[in-house]
Amino acid sequence: MRLVLLGAPGSGKGTQATRLREHLQVPHITTGGMLRAAVDAGTPLGLVVGPIMKAGNLVSDELMLGVLEERFAQPDTRNGFILDGYPRNLSQANALDVLLVRIGQPMDLAVQLEVDQELLVDRLAGRAKAEGRADDSPEAVRNRLRVYEEQTAPVVDHYRTQGKLAHLDGVGSLDDVFTRILEAISPYADVG
Ligand code: B4P
After folding, report:
1. Is the CB of 83 under 6 A from ligand 1?
2. Interior angle at CA 60, CA 166 and CA 51, nearest 5
3. Are 17 and 30 in contact (CB under 8 A)?
4. Residue 51: partners with Cβ closer than 8 Å, 6 or more residues away
5. Residue 134 Cα, ligand 1 centroid: separation in angstroms?
6. Which of 12, 46, 51, 94 lies 20 to 30 Å from 60 when distance is taken between CA atoms?
7. Are 3 and 168 within 8 A, CB to CB?
8. pLDDT tens, the chain, 192 aa long
9. Mutate which of 59, 99, 175 to test ligand 1's pocket (most atoms within 8 Å of Cβ)?
10. What is the pTM of this model?
11. Which amino acid residue places its CA nearest to atom 12 of ligand 1?
12. Which residues of 5-33 are buried (b: 16+ CB within 10 A; e: fewer)?
Protein backbone atom coordinates (compact mmCIF):
# COMPACT_ATOMS: atom_id res chain seq x y z
CA MET A 1 0.00 0.00 0.00
CA ARG A 2 1.36 3.40 -1.01
CA LEU A 3 -0.57 6.03 0.87
CA VAL A 4 -0.36 9.80 1.36
CA LEU A 5 -2.10 11.43 4.35
CA LEU A 6 -3.32 14.99 3.90
CA GLY A 7 -4.87 17.38 6.38
CA ALA A 8 -4.36 20.57 8.32
CA PRO A 9 -2.08 20.69 11.36
CA GLY A 10 -3.91 18.85 14.13
CA SER A 11 -6.14 16.88 11.76
CA GLY A 12 -4.71 13.59 13.01
CA LYS A 13 -2.30 12.60 10.23
CA GLY A 14 0.56 11.63 12.51
CA THR A 15 -1.78 10.02 15.03
CA GLN A 16 -3.48 7.82 12.44
CA ALA A 17 -0.26 7.08 10.55
CA THR A 18 1.20 5.49 13.67
CA ARG A 19 -1.79 3.12 13.85
CA LEU A 20 -1.72 2.43 10.12
CA ARG A 21 1.95 1.51 10.25
CA GLU A 22 1.16 -1.32 12.70
CA HIS A 23 -1.80 -2.44 10.65
CA LEU A 24 -0.25 -2.34 7.19
CA GLN A 25 3.32 -3.22 8.22
CA VAL A 26 4.80 -0.53 5.97
CA PRO A 27 7.02 2.36 7.12
CA HIS A 28 5.54 5.64 8.32
CA ILE A 29 7.46 8.43 6.63
CA THR A 30 6.85 11.65 8.53
CA THR A 31 8.67 14.67 7.18
CA GLY A 32 7.84 16.67 10.33
CA GLY A 33 9.20 13.84 12.47
CA MET A 34 12.40 13.58 10.42
CA LEU A 35 12.94 17.33 10.71
CA ARG A 36 12.28 17.33 14.47
CA ALA A 37 14.82 14.50 14.86
CA ALA A 38 17.37 16.58 12.96
CA VAL A 39 16.66 19.59 15.20
CA ASP A 40 16.99 17.46 18.37
CA ALA A 41 20.26 15.95 17.13
CA GLY A 42 21.64 19.38 16.20
CA THR A 43 22.62 18.26 12.68
CA PRO A 44 23.41 20.89 10.01
CA LEU A 45 19.91 20.32 8.58
CA GLY A 46 18.39 20.72 12.04
CA LEU A 47 20.18 24.02 12.62
CA VAL A 48 18.73 25.39 9.38
CA VAL A 49 15.15 24.17 9.81
CA GLY A 50 14.70 24.69 13.58
CA PRO A 51 13.79 28.41 13.46
CA ILE A 52 11.63 27.92 10.34
CA MET A 53 9.57 25.21 12.02
CA LYS A 54 9.30 27.12 15.30
CA ALA A 55 7.63 29.98 13.41
CA GLY A 56 5.25 27.55 11.70
CA ASN A 57 6.60 28.17 8.20
CA LEU A 58 7.42 25.61 5.52
CA VAL A 59 10.97 24.43 5.00
CA SER A 60 12.20 25.03 1.41
CA ASP A 61 11.06 22.62 -1.30
CA GLU A 62 14.66 21.93 -2.28
CA LEU A 63 15.70 20.85 1.22
CA MET A 64 12.55 18.76 1.65
CA LEU A 65 13.03 16.92 -1.62
CA GLY A 66 16.57 16.01 -0.57
CA VAL A 67 15.27 14.64 2.75
CA LEU A 68 12.57 12.66 0.97
CA GLU A 69 14.83 11.23 -1.72
CA GLU A 70 17.25 10.04 0.94
CA ARG A 71 14.41 8.34 2.83
CA PHE A 72 13.02 6.63 -0.27
CA ALA A 73 16.48 5.27 -1.03
CA GLN A 74 16.12 3.04 2.08
CA PRO A 75 15.11 -0.53 1.21
CA ASP A 76 12.23 -0.66 3.72
CA THR A 77 10.11 1.56 1.42
CA ARG A 78 10.02 -1.02 -1.37
CA ASN A 79 6.88 -2.75 -0.12
CA GLY A 80 4.90 0.42 0.38
CA PHE A 81 4.73 3.40 2.73
CA ILE A 82 2.52 5.86 4.56
CA LEU A 83 3.65 9.39 3.75
CA ASP A 84 2.62 11.97 6.36
CA GLY A 85 3.46 15.69 6.00
CA TYR A 86 4.50 15.67 2.35
CA PRO A 87 3.46 17.14 -0.08
CA ARG A 88 2.61 20.51 1.45
CA ASN A 89 2.32 22.58 -1.74
CA LEU A 90 1.78 21.98 -5.44
CA SER A 91 5.44 22.07 -6.27
CA GLN A 92 6.07 19.27 -3.73
CA ALA A 93 3.11 17.31 -5.13
CA ASN A 94 4.59 17.46 -8.63
CA ALA A 95 8.06 16.55 -7.34
CA LEU A 96 6.58 13.58 -5.48
CA ASP A 97 4.78 12.31 -8.59
CA VAL A 98 8.07 12.41 -10.51
CA LEU A 99 10.04 10.74 -7.70
CA LEU A 100 7.55 7.89 -7.23
CA VAL A 101 7.34 7.17 -10.95
CA ARG A 102 11.13 7.18 -11.12
CA ILE A 103 11.42 4.56 -8.36
CA GLY A 104 8.51 2.56 -9.80
CA GLN A 105 6.22 3.12 -6.81
CA PRO A 106 3.31 5.34 -7.90
CA MET A 107 1.00 6.12 -5.01
CA ASP A 108 -2.35 4.38 -4.63
CA LEU A 109 -4.38 6.89 -2.68
CA ALA A 110 -4.31 10.24 -0.86
CA VAL A 111 -6.51 10.33 2.25
CA GLN A 112 -7.57 13.77 3.41
CA LEU A 113 -8.74 14.21 7.02
CA GLU A 114 -11.15 17.12 7.33
CA VAL A 115 -11.51 18.87 10.72
CA ASP A 116 -13.02 22.29 11.56
CA GLN A 117 -10.54 25.01 12.33
CA GLU A 118 -11.87 25.58 15.87
CA LEU A 119 -11.31 21.93 16.76
CA LEU A 120 -7.83 22.01 15.21
CA VAL A 121 -6.87 24.91 17.47
CA ASP A 122 -8.24 23.03 20.52
CA ARG A 123 -6.32 19.87 19.66
CA LEU A 124 -3.04 21.70 19.14
CA ALA A 125 -3.52 23.67 22.37
CA GLY A 126 -3.99 20.33 24.11
CA ARG A 127 -0.79 18.98 22.61
CA ALA A 128 1.07 22.18 23.53
CA LYS A 129 0.17 21.53 27.17
CA ALA A 130 0.96 17.82 27.03
CA GLU A 131 4.14 17.82 24.95
CA GLY A 132 5.39 21.42 24.74
CA ARG A 133 6.19 21.16 21.01
CA ALA A 134 7.90 24.39 19.88
CA ASP A 135 5.53 24.96 16.95
CA ASP A 136 2.33 24.48 18.98
CA SER A 137 2.49 28.00 20.49
CA PRO A 138 -0.69 30.00 19.69
CA GLU A 139 1.19 32.29 17.31
CA ALA A 140 2.87 29.44 15.39
CA VAL A 141 -0.42 27.51 15.21
CA ARG A 142 -2.19 30.53 13.65
CA ASN A 143 0.58 30.77 11.08
CA ARG A 144 0.57 27.01 10.35
CA LEU A 145 -3.18 27.09 9.71
CA ARG A 146 -2.78 30.07 7.38
CA VAL A 147 0.07 28.37 5.51
CA TYR A 148 -2.09 25.25 5.20
CA GLU A 149 -5.01 27.15 3.66
CA GLU A 150 -2.79 29.06 1.24
CA GLN A 151 -0.32 26.38 0.18
CA THR A 152 -1.42 22.90 1.18
CA ALA A 153 -5.17 22.97 0.53
CA PRO A 154 -4.62 23.14 -3.29
CA VAL A 155 -2.78 19.81 -3.10
CA VAL A 156 -6.15 18.18 -2.40
CA ASP A 157 -7.37 19.21 -5.87
CA HIS A 158 -4.18 17.84 -7.39
CA TYR A 159 -5.10 14.34 -6.19
CA ARG A 160 -8.83 14.80 -6.84
CA THR A 161 -8.00 15.52 -10.49
CA GLN A 162 -5.93 12.34 -10.62
CA GLY A 163 -8.89 10.37 -9.20
CA LYS A 164 -6.76 9.39 -6.20
CA LEU A 165 -8.46 11.28 -3.37
CA ALA A 166 -10.48 9.95 -0.43
CA HIS A 167 -11.98 12.84 1.54
CA LEU A 168 -12.82 11.73 5.09
CA ASP A 169 -14.34 13.24 8.21
CA GLY A 170 -11.49 13.53 10.74
CA VAL A 171 -13.79 14.30 13.70
CA GLY A 172 -14.62 11.58 16.19
CA SER A 173 -12.73 9.12 18.36
CA LEU A 174 -9.33 7.81 17.21
CA ASP A 175 -11.02 4.45 16.54
CA ASP A 176 -13.82 6.03 14.49
CA VAL A 177 -11.37 7.89 12.26
CA PHE A 178 -9.16 4.82 11.95
CA THR A 179 -12.14 2.71 10.82
CA ARG A 180 -13.04 5.30 8.16
CA ILE A 181 -9.49 5.20 6.83
CA LEU A 182 -9.44 1.39 6.73
CA GLU A 183 -12.68 1.41 4.73
CA ALA A 184 -11.27 3.96 2.27
CA ILE A 185 -8.04 2.06 1.68
CA SER A 186 -9.54 -1.44 1.62
CA PRO A 187 -9.66 -1.64 -2.21
CA TYR A 188 -5.90 -1.04 -2.29
CA ALA A 189 -4.58 -3.02 0.65
CA ASP A 190 -4.85 -6.40 2.24
CA VAL A 191 -6.03 -4.95 5.53
CA GLY A 192 -7.87 -7.96 6.89
P1 B4P B 1 4.09 18.01 11.00
O2 B4P B 1 4.92 17.19 11.91
O3 B4P B 1 3.60 17.36 9.75
O4 B4P B 1 2.91 18.59 11.93
P5 B4P B 1 1.32 18.66 11.92
O6 B4P B 1 0.81 19.12 10.61
O7 B4P B 1 0.95 19.45 13.12
O8 B4P B 1 0.68 17.25 12.10
P9 B4P B 1 0.86 16.10 13.18
O10 B4P B 1 0.84 14.88 12.34
O11 B4P B 1 2.04 16.26 14.03
O12 B4P B 1 -0.34 16.18 14.19
P13 B4P B 1 -1.70 15.38 14.26
O14 B4P B 1 -2.54 16.07 13.26
O15 B4P B 1 -1.59 13.90 14.16
O16 B4P B 1 4.90 19.33 10.56
C17 B4P B 1 5.56 20.18 11.47
C18 B4P B 1 6.40 21.26 10.73
O19 B4P B 1 7.46 20.63 9.96
C20 B4P B 1 5.68 22.12 9.69
O21 B4P B 1 4.97 23.21 10.26
C22 B4P B 1 6.87 22.56 8.77
O23 B4P B 1 7.58 23.62 9.36
C24 B4P B 1 7.76 21.34 8.75
N25 B4P B 1 7.47 20.46 7.59
C26 B4P B 1 7.06 19.15 7.67
N27 B4P B 1 6.89 18.63 6.44
C28 B4P B 1 7.20 19.62 5.56
C29 B4P B 1 7.19 19.72 4.13
N30 B4P B 1 6.80 18.69 3.37
N31 B4P B 1 7.55 20.90 3.55
C32 B4P B 1 7.94 21.94 4.29
N33 B4P B 1 7.97 21.91 5.64
C34 B4P B 1 7.59 20.78 6.28
O35 B4P B 1 -2.22 15.58 15.76
C36 B4P B 1 -2.35 16.79 16.42
C37 B4P B 1 -3.01 16.62 17.79
O38 B4P B 1 -4.37 16.24 17.64
C39 B4P B 1 -2.39 15.55 18.69
O40 B4P B 1 -2.27 16.06 19.99
C41 B4P B 1 -3.37 14.41 18.65
O42 B4P B 1 -3.39 13.66 19.84
C43 B4P B 1 -4.70 15.13 18.48
N44 B4P B 1 -5.67 14.30 17.76
C45 B4P B 1 -5.45 13.59 16.62
N46 B4P B 1 -6.58 12.94 16.25
C47 B4P B 1 -7.54 13.26 17.18
C48 B4P B 1 -8.93 12.90 17.35
N49 B4P B 1 -9.56 12.10 16.48
N50 B4P B 1 -9.59 13.43 18.40
C51 B4P B 1 -8.98 14.24 19.27
N52 B4P B 1 -7.66 14.61 19.18
C53 B4P B 1 -6.96 14.12 18.15
Report:
1. no
2. 110
3. yes
4. none
5. 12
6. 12
7. no
8. 999 999 999 999 999 999 999 999 999 999 999 999 999 999 999 999 999 999 999 999 999 999 999 999 999 999 999 999 999 999 999 999 999 999 999 999 999 999 999 999 999 999 999 999 999 999 999 999 999 999 999 999 999 999 999 999 999 999 999 999 999 999 997 644
9. 59
10. 0.94
11. 10
12. bbbbbbbbbbbbbebbbebbebbbbbbbe
Distance 70 CA to ligand 1 centre (A): 22
Domains located in the chain, CATH noted: 2-27+80-185 (3.40.50.300), 30-73 (no CATH)
Per residue, the 3-state secondary structure of the chain, as one string, reads CEEEEEECCCCCHHHHHHHHHHHHCCCEEEHHHHHHHHHHHCCHHHHHHHHHHHCCCCCCHHHHHHHHHHHHCCHHHCCCEEEECCCCCHHHHHHHHHHHHHCCCCCCEEEEEECCHHHHHHHHHHHHHHHCCHHHCHHHHHHHHHHHHHHHHHHHHHHHHCCCEEEEECCCCHHHHHHHHHHHHCCCCCCC
Residue nearest to atom 36 of ligand 1 (CA): 10
Shortest CA distance to 191 belongs to which of 3, 57, 63, 37? 3
